[in-house]
Amino acid sequence: MIARLWRGYAAPEKAHLYLEHLEKSVFPDLDQIDGFRGAHVLQRHQHGNVEFVVMTLWESMDAIHQFAGENADMAVVAPAAQAVLHQYDATVAHYDIALTK
Questions:
Q1: Domain that holds residue 11
Q2: Contact 96, 58 (CB under 8 A)
């Protein structure tokens, strides 16, 4: 299993809009991809912003390529998310899941 991690930042008054975007647009699309295994969205208030860490779980890099395209290290940030986030990573990190409990 592979974890794909990415960060984005929103003003506190816009943070709920990003979560709504994930629930209504992103997650339904991801559910259609064979090999998508779930997601976790972490958030914390820091320095007057809300920081999000999005971790999606994938069966393989082939499944990730179905979502992200040929260059899987580039972040996929829809225009609707860009309108809510004032800062976000342009790239992602992929990790092999070595141990779970």
A1: 2-90
A2: no
